[in-house]
Amino acid sequence: MKISTSELPEKWYSNIEKSREKAKRLLNQIVAIDLNTSIIVGKLEDVSVDRLWRLKYPFCKLTLKNPEKYGINGKFESKLGEEQFCFVSKPQMIMSLEELSEKFPEIHEDVHVKIRRNAFG
Known about the structure:
Order of helices and strands: HEEEEEEHH
Strand content: 35-45%
Oligomer: single chain
CATH architecture: Roll
Structural class: alpha+beta
Shape: globular
Low-confidence stretches: none
CATH class: Mainly Beta
Number of helices: 3
Number of domains: 1
């Protein structure tokens, strides 16, 4: 079944707009994106609203520089290359370093060391 944009609840659009606003406040800072099964950490370079592949409804598209992937257990998993796109639908998925320290302190500690070494550019 195809979902058209007219079938989406108003809350969806509200969450996308809130996500975009939060991300714009964090532009050019190190952020963490909570993707439920993993946490992506990198420098936020660009924010836009875009459609995800063939889906007809919008998502907040984030571009991260030099991102790294962590498991929800706090363990480093891998570097993801020079640039990574993340699509989010809720502002809670985007975390500042302060929010990261509260929710995932072990990841924050590792990221803080890497910031001092300028690992995120």
